[in-house]
Amino acid sequence: MKPLRPYLKLKHLIWPGLFLILMGLTAGLVAGTWGPIPAGLLSAGIGLLVVWLGSQASGFQGLWGKRSTQAGTNAVLATLAVLAIFLLTNFLATRYNTRLDLTENRLFTLAPQSQEVVKSLEDPVKVWIFDLAPNPADRDLLENYRRQNPDGFAYEYVDPQVQPGLAERFGVQNFGEVYVEKGDSRSDASGNRRQLVQTISPSQRLSERRLTTALVKITSDRQTKVYFLQGHGERELNPGQGGLSQALTSLTDETFQAEPLNLANTAEIPADAAVIVVAGPQRPLLAEEITRLKDFQTRKGGLLLLVDPQANPELDDLLEGWGVAFSDRILVDPAAGRDGAVTIITEYGPHPITDGLNNGITFFPLARPLELGEVEGVEMTPLLFTNARTQAQQIGEDGQLQLDPEAPEGNLVLGAAFSRRLSNAPAPSPSPDAEEPPVQDEVRMVAIGNSTFATNGLIDQQLNRDLFLNAIGWLSQEADPTFSVRAAEPTNRRVLFSPSQQIALILASLVFLPLAGLALAVGVWWRRR
């Protein structure tokens, strides 16, 4: 009988080595610490594996020469490389968290206004959602708010059946009610402010616009009055086509108070008027009304003039001294065909009203250009520029467009902002300790050759709402106005099929396509048989 070779005795060391390593890992994971016992077991197991590898060196030399070993080794290395890349990617994603929103309206990214509002929260604000189960989309939206200001914004889901006392304190009537609360939520002290945001449901999720509006309202005490002039064919404030009810709702959401103003029945303009809007007058204003508006421009305040083509409200006396006049022409884009009378604006002047619009779109059906001139003491900034091919054509007495090849063409001005310092207010001397110079009270005015862009159905399109609200905010001369783009609502992309279309779609997907695939397979088999 031949004696056993040494390597035959050592080849079995792999099994106790693996066993000791498994024991060491188990002991360390169960104990939660890697003390002497787990470390000793791991060391012993690794030592046995090293001895085993040394005893098999001669066998490995022939093994490495085989093609199957090389292929297997490549597969193992490729697998290890994929795992390493996967682990490194997760590590980098966890450490450097970046979100990319590719939706059309950037639904998963807070609008600039929402970011400004939540970042400027001075007192803690908490959102309470009284619902049975959190919705992932709503939670993602709330997390976006919290990331902007972790110390000032918080939210909590509450089951009204589990915490009926808390639901009773808020006056919850239905599941899905969302409240925003400022102050100490544990008491009902006078410093607390609470407001209902909306009632969510499976078909109506939490709205960023409504939540941001609620944050603005609960953190602001301002009650700025905006008056809309009436009595000369101006845009009505009621719902319906051509009205301004949606504009008034937007102003209310921004904590403004909007009311009608008829100067024929009023001895003077109310003292609390911060902004007066003249939207689409069709008939001339009375001389007394012009005088009252001119008197309004001698104190701190703002005037928004929205004048449509083919209307002559006779505002020359009011505009005297401002260096602006409404042209009697109409803007036309010859390259746009039938839609040429709709002026699309993508170029804006540098001004707080338009800074947040960037290269976005605002559009104005049937607009007229402005004629601008420099006036000493008046700071004038063009806001809205047409494209280079836009023309300012004349309208005949019969109401027909007269195409004149010599008409003004190019980057015409559709809207502009004006301001001048009050003559009876001395310039304040800045304090040496102040970081910024004090703001001087001004009289301000914005003139736009169109009022249709702010009417019902159109104010929600593109950035029309933002232009209108930014103009009101700048004219109001509030201490902390918000000039930015508001939150966008989801675009409805659902496709509705008629019953016949549904039947055709079912037959095509479940009958015709499988039969076509079967016929193709039979044809291939027939040719190759």
TrEMBL record:
TM helices/strands, residue ranges: 12-31, 75-93, 503-526
Keywords: Membrane, Transmembrane, Transmembrane helix
Aminoacyl-tRNA synthetase is among the record's keywords: no
InterPro entries listed in its UniProt record: ABC_transp_unknown (IPR019196), DUF7088 (IPR055396)
Domain ABC-type uncharacterised transport system: 224-462
Domain of life: Bacteria
Stated name of the protein: ABC transporter
Ranges for domain DUF7088: 104-174
